[in-house]
Amino acid sequence: MLDVDDVVSVLVSFLHSLETDIQEGSAKVVLVIAGFDSYKVVSVGAGVIAPLIRVLECGSELGKQSAARCLMKLTQNSENAWSVSAHGGVTALLKICSGVDCKVELVGPACGVLRNLVGVEEIKRFMVEEGSILMFIRLARSKDEALQMMSIEFLESIAFGDELIREMVIREGGIRALVRVVDPKWSHSSKTRELVYFICNGEVSIQELALKVAFRLCGTSEEAKKAMGDAGFMPELVKLLNAKSFEVREMAGEALSGMVLVSRNRKRFVQDDRNIGMLL
């Protein structure tokens, strides 16, 4: 009777198959196995990463989707990052994300794998050198809502704690792309709430970037200000009036002054005496 190691070894060998059906079927089974922590080590030990990357490069569309989702599970918390990199996985994933004809079902998990890998400094630098910043800013301008958010999450991860990359994101048009994503004319209010999340919980550099987006968004339209008020921006902006950075305090104050020009925002604002006290 075959044990787990033997079964995984057989599946890995099937990933090398030239028969599309066999390759797709084994990729789907490996995807299920990769969801169990105890089997991840077994899968990686059996050499699953190299054939998964080969499927990404040469497989069918369905095979590529399963392979990318598999790699996303195998690289959580930057696990197995070097193995993916050593087999050319980073280049293959970047190629997928740069393709004009690729579907969200493939680009989405490919974005997820790359986001998992940015925790390794050398791999992050390689991605930057290969033009990933501009690539993901372009993806953030996509009409597909899922791709927009995955791209923003990647940009947040790659800029985390890195002032140079943060400035690169801004220079390459990242703020304009983010404004377009959260502007109610282009997307749903859930995106505005995502921006609130970054202001509340983001690392300092990401928080400042999100605040700049909010500041610019305030100047786009009355509808934008209403959406920001509905999403709960004002209490968070009030908190930032106590920030150490003068620039942060100034942007928060100007954003608030723009938002309270809208009647329903003004009513919300004055309902909390602490808001008035903070301004005074």
From TrEMBL:
ARM repeats: 88-132
Any Pfam family the entry gives: Arm
Keyword Repeat annotated: yes
SMART domains: ARM
InterPro entries in alphabetical order: ARM-like, ARM-type_fold, Armadillo
Keyword field: Repeat
Name by which UniProt lists this protein: Armadillo repeat-containing domain-containing protein
Organism: Carpinus fangiana
